[in-house]
Amino acid sequence: MPTIQERAARLIEAGQIRERGRWDAPADDTITLDEAQRHRRRMAMVSDGGIAFLLDLPEARLLVEGDAIVLSDGRLVEVRAKPEPLLSVRGRDADHLLQIAWQIGNRHLPCQIRDGRILLRRDHVIADMLRGLGADVHEVEAAFDPVGGAYAGGHHHAHD
Fold this sequence. Notes:
- Belongs to the UreE family.
- Keywords: Chaperone, Cytoplasm, Nickel.
- Pfam families: UreE_C (PF05194), UreE_N (PF02814).
- Its main location: cytoplasm.
- Involved in urease metallocenter assembly. Binds nickel. Probably functions as a nickel donor during metallocenter assembly.
- This protein has helices at 4-10, 35-38, 94-106, 124-132, and strands at residues 12-14, 16-18, 29-33, 39-46, 52-62, 68-70, 76-81, 84-90, 111-114, 117-121, 136-142.
- It is an alpha+beta fold.
- It starts with a helix and ends in an 18-residue tail after the last strand.
- It is built from 4 helices and 11 strands.
- The strands form 3 sheets. Strands 2-6-7-3 form a 4-stranded mixed β-sheet.
- It has 2 domains: 4-81, Sandwich (HSP40/DNAj peptide-binding domain), CATH 2.60.260.20; 84-151, 2-Layer Sandwich (Alpha-Beta Plaits).
- The relative contact order is 0.17.
């Protein structure tokens, strides 16, 4: 049986990403991943159509819906965001939504802000807290592309 290293050596490599909106050739395939699966640097992957390849980027990054992974043979694999269980949060008005956003940010929770609402991962404790602050909270299934923020190079940081 081949080792992991031997199998990886036979994979097509992919070391370049074309960002959403910066490529226009038709994609040869797609790959559908949730947000956690889209934050990668190096990993063996299989496209939706069965193309096995080794993603090998210089640094970890969040792939977003519409990015294209460039395979070493020139083919493009378009990234699709897999819908996942989220909370959709709205405020009474813009000021209230800003206060809610501050509470979410103060807890260092990844979130997506768009169309007058905030999306974040489902968590019943956070949902109860937000409802207690007067937010309109609903469970949804949607693609999740959180804001990168000041620490966009990674999801974690420390308070020294």
